[in-house]
Amino acid sequence: MLVRKGATVRYGPAIRIVPLSDDTELHASTARLLDERLDVVVATTGIGFRGWIEAAEGWGIGEALLDRLGKAAVLARGPKAKGAIRAAGLSEDYSPASESNAELLQHLLASGVDGQRIAVQLHGEPLPYFVDSLRDAGAEVIEIPVYRWVGPADPGPLDRLLDAVLDGSIDAMPFTSAPAAASMLAFAKRTARLPGVVDSLTHRIVVACVGPITAAPLAALGIPTVQPARARIGALARTVSQALEARSPRLQVAGRCIELRGQAAIVDGQWCDVAPAPMALLRVLAAEPGRVISRRELTSALPSGGEEHAVETAIGRLRTSLGEGKMVQTVVKRGYRLAVEAAL
Description:
This protein has 344 residues and is α/β, with parallel strands linked by helices. It has 14 helices and 15 strands. The longest helix has 15 residues, at 308-322. The protein is elongated. It starts with 15 loop residues before the first strand and ends with a strand. The relative contact order is 0.09. The model has no long low-confidence stretch (mean pLDDT 89).
């Protein structure tokens, strides 16, 4: 969807899934669940619930699991989990309109859980607040760790993606799961790049998340995110597109119409590729059109830093890329400005 809108997509997988049939933790949790009675089961994701049932079938305990679940109250976080429950021949007893774990927890606590045995299907990482709240209310909780996440088998693509975040060649980063966001941040910390990555994600890059759960690891570090009204992948792609368009100023500069687009500029309808360093300076100049920006301010905007002569070199390359030297004016002993006539 993003490519169809003209984007160049770079991949940096931050996680991989442990095959359910090989997951000893899931097998142990399922066996424990079958040993005693079960009062409530909470399904948080459709793919996780389906995978759990399929894994149990592979172990030869699929029918026993479905029989045990069928005698319990089944709660579904959202429509995908609800669909997976029904596909397994079961029916849900409750599903919150908000599709949130918070409302699901509120419903459970309001109904009373003291003395109950509750299975909570996790969605790739622990849910400490959810589980601890149930335990504090007197419930016995069995955590079901389906599709457990671990780090990527090959960290190379993620390593290169973080380099691109730091050198200014990434404009947007969408995330579809909290484990992926957390793993990316953990990798940045292990490689001593976390402060720079957080700064880039906070001030320059559009960070989009499919929903608030996915955004949580980023929000904990103060990184702002945009999110679609509905937690769907298609809506996420549209949100990314709209956020980038909103951040693409169109200006009348030295008699030419210029529009900033990712790592390029459109000048009078002509596409002009711009290298990361000149593009970083163009964004700073366009953010305050017409104002004189000092060399010191522009130096701090360069992806790799540098001295003032690096700014002069980047400005020269910017003028060449735009094909019109008059668009970027030199103000002697003060700095540079765009020769802006009007914002369009």
